Amino acid sequence: MALLSVQDLSVKFKRRGLAPFDAVDGVSFDVEAGKIVGLVGESGSGKSVTSLAIMRLLPKRGNTIGGVVDFDGTDLLRIPMSQMRDKRGADLAMIFQDPLSSLNPVVPIGLQITEVLKRHRGMRGAAAENEARDLLDQVGIPDPTRRLHEYAHQLSGGMRQRAMIAMALACRPRLLIADEPTTALDVTIQAQILSLLDTLVHEHGTAMIMITHDLGVVAGLCDEVNVMYAGRTVERADRYEIYAHPQHPYTNGLLASIPRLDSPPGERLHPVPGSVSDNIPWASACAFAPRCSNAIGDCRQQSPEFKPAPVGRDHLLRCFNPVEPEAVGAAAVQQMATSPIPPPSNKEQLS
Amino acid sequence: MLRYIVRRLAQLVVVLLILSLLLFFWLRLLPGGPDSAICGERCTPEQRTALRSAMGLDQPIWTQYLKYLGRIVQGDFGTSGFVEPGVPALEVFWHRLPATIELTIAALIFALVLAIPLGYFAARRKGSLLDSTGVVVSLLGVAVPVFFLAYLLKFVFAVKLHWLPDSGRQGDINATRVTGFFVLDGLITREWDAAWDALKHLILPAIALGFIPFAVIFRITRGSVIDVQNEDYVRTAESKGLTTSVIRRRHILRNAMLPVVTVTGLQVGALLAGAVLTETVFAYPGLGQATQIAFQNRDYAMLQILVLASAVTYMLVNLVVDLSYALIDPRIRTR
């Protein structure tokens, strides 16, 4: 039994004078304890909205949420808000994209950690402060005693994200949602933060949802990958499988657009043509069809179903005309899947 | 920090010097003067000349100014001619100051206590009845002139309904004076009836005076909370499962208060001007009323000390606002 089971989740945003917009449309996936599940897609694919819907952090007005978010036997979408507040921060925690704007600029870092400890673990005064210091130490922030009294603007980008992680892990949540946790950081810090998350999650047996647009991040970290497009999951498999046999033209396009170390000098990148604004509704077609080089007649007339892929095991696909799996070379798969995370260490150089 | 305060206080002295100079010359350029105010139309030219020379008005204006400065440094601001005839201007000032401070504080309390919670809840329930009512009332608040509102309040609640007194600071009560702040005096001496009576005298003038600040602070609070509640760090606070009261106090209001502090400071300056009108309407014996009397009767000594005092107040309030920024916003403190 999975710790978190998202079933047929949908989020519609109301629009004045227009039909509601399906930001998330029938998304289902499971997350087991100790596993990391990746949600991958470009901006507007619905991955962040999915995570906010799970946490019930979407604005109260202007949207309708459907489906089931089963967390350890409780449907999070149907419990009273007061119960949800008890779970947030304690059972489910979240890390956001930009640590500078996600930390309160006028509240010391220490207080932003101890307030969670007070709320959910009933800790007070010195006990809470000591625990906060230990947490900062665990996430590899040097001189934690001093940092407790500092503010977000006094910390470097990497340290801010470490502080966010300390805050999220303060109550040992069973599920951690990381929404693009490394996007705002530079590459070396990215790798440190990812390895830190990897270590902590595996140490504590925490389940994690990793939201990213970066397939490199997914390759190094996630057990299972869900590729999202225009609010629906278009391909799902474990990470080796998806890099070995990417079959959705969109997944394939994302992989091909990543610059590679072994490509000849001067070779151009291969972007996925078009943009999200070219989408057509899923209702009677494949939303990706206008941008797809593999599109056939069916793609614009019927909505493809999410069903087992022609090649590979436990591989689900939403496509009428999948790409031949050999399109991406085996060597590239090896490179992607074993890249680019350094061995975990808590005390490496901080920027 | 200390150096900063010292520098600001030095600036204050320079501004006061320039202001005293401008004020001195400008007052004397006005038609009429203390001599005509004292002896009126019926004076013979001889009497008038004698009066002018007795008051030192026949001397060159520069000499007059320098003598004036010299006296100020010794704490002599001249003698009031009309507000309280024959009493040293400085004494009149100190005597009336508590009345105006009491009124200003009451007006500010009225404005802040209403505006900040209402602004917060209007923002949190944007588009609700509370929100739209608040916006309309605050629009009225800035549009209605202070003296009109003052007369209206006085007419309805004092003259027609007799709920509250229509003028003065206190009725016929034999109250003990300690600080000059009548409400406070009543509390200190446990003369509850005196405190209550002084408070009743404060209510209408305080509402009249505090209405514009209320309207302005309400709008700023509302706008600021609308901005802040959509900030990422508020979502972070929500994601930590914090209680609504902690989110409101620590994560929304603390950030939303920055512009509110600025505007409140500016409004204290505006209160000085409003006090002239309000105190006149309610015959409230403070500095505002003194200003009006002094202006009408060319009481130079009084006018000079009053204008200088309001300049000092304005600049000190601004200094306090700037310092309180550092208190609220650590990003300014460490710079």
Pick out its properties.
heterodimer; A: 351 residues; alpha/beta; eight-stranded mixed β-sheet; four-stranded antiparallel β-sheet; 32% helix; 21% strand; globular; disordered C terminus; B: 335 residues; 2 domains
Structural features, described:
The complex is a heterodimer of chains A (351) and B (335). With 351 residues, chain A is α/β, with parallel strands linked by helices. Chain A has a domain at 92-172. Chain A has helices at 47-55, 81-87, 99-102, 109-121, 125-138, 144-148, 157-169, 187-204, 215-221, 239-244, 249-256, 330-338, and strands at residues 4-15, 18-31, 36-40, 63-71, 74-75, 92-95, 175-179, 207-212, 224-229, 232-238, 307-308, 316-317. Chain A has an eight-stranded mixed sheet with strand order 6-7-8-3-9-10-12-11, sandwiched between helices. Chain A has a four-stranded antiparallel sheet with strand order 2-1-4-5. In chain A, a hairpin with a 2-residue loop joins strand 1 and strand 2. Chain A is globular. The model of chain A is unreliable at 340-351 (pLDDT under 50). By secondary structure, chain B is an all-alpha fold. Helix content of chain B is 77%, strand content 0%. Chain B is built from 14 helices and no strands. Chain B has helices spanning 2-29, 34-39, 45-54, 61-73, 89-124, 129-143, 146-160, 182-188, 192-229, 232-239, 244-281, 287-296, 300-328, 330-333. The longest helix of chain B has 38 residues, at 192-229. The interface between A and B is medium-sized, with 31 and 22 residues.
